[in-house]
């Protein structure tokens, strides 16, 4: 596997990137339709945001199941089961008669989509380590990071021809297409001799060992808090941009998609320069950038600044996410090869668990203020820095003292 080069390596990155993109596709494609869903289902903005929370909870909970399951029975079989479940959940959402049904079905859709995220990352760890892991993960993220750009644009495009229900029909078709490609093209990467038991006690033991590892916990929390800030941005901007600043669904999609390029820039900085600059420096740079721009964002929303005063800091915040997510994943996974599925699940769980808290809080003061979004994003950036300095740095100091 290590010797894979050329076309096979690119094809694998495209497939795993597409699987990893199931999360952002599932989250982002329906964002332009938030106001429309609220109107057609005769519900509030906060209720529509709860459908995002339900999806995030599903994405988090699913990784707790799918990660350890893939450690026990291999990567391919649970992936195929989840992709078929994703198809049925997406079609069910398209037939939602009310917001309660939609919220419940969104949880199931997120649960199924989680397999694409956690198992694709575990497959990468099966095959690579060290700098090669960083490089290939950067290639993987380049593909999956296209989703935040294309998903809302695609969603707003669909809205020009049909209702919001059509967005979920398209998502179901994507799930079915990935099912076919995985079944025909993806080879199993975890041989039977490397699999670990999937009993509840063993799973809990694996997670407990990860939680007790201060460095792993610090990297996981730093990434988790940062991405929780992203979900505040994802949940808040459809209403902030469209209701407060009066942009159309198509203009919102372009603004949202533009930030996807920032995400790609941050990811590729780490992937391309990791042989020159240590991942830890990129992580620190990303955390510092996030703290700076979210401070500017809070000032802008408190002063009711123009649209541009939000767009610029949000772009650089999303860019910082690309740096933090890529560097922290590599640093956290380096010593977890024996339980890569469980480690990947833990790294995937925290962002969605924390994001499920921040997403609905954005709407706590109503649809006509951006202050909660700015304050939450600033707070999560501060907590991410605190996790790094409170857990990773002391653990590194202790390790150096014992050398």
Automatic annotation (TrEMBL):
This is Bcr/CflA family efflux transporter. Pfam families: MFS_1. It is a multi-pass membrane protein. CDD domains: MFS_MdfA_MDR_like. The keyword ATP-binding does not apply. The chain crosses the membrane at residues 48-66, 78-95, 101-124, 136-161, 167-186, 216-234, 254-271, 283-303, 309-333, 345-365, 371-391. Residues 12-398 form the Major facilitator superfamily (MFS) profile domain. Keywords: Cell membrane, Membrane, Transmembrane, Transmembrane helix, Transport. NCBIfam families: efflux_Bcr_CflA (TIGR00710), PRK11102.1 (NF008314). It is found in: Cell membrane. Belongs to the major facilitator superfamily. Bcr/CmlA family.
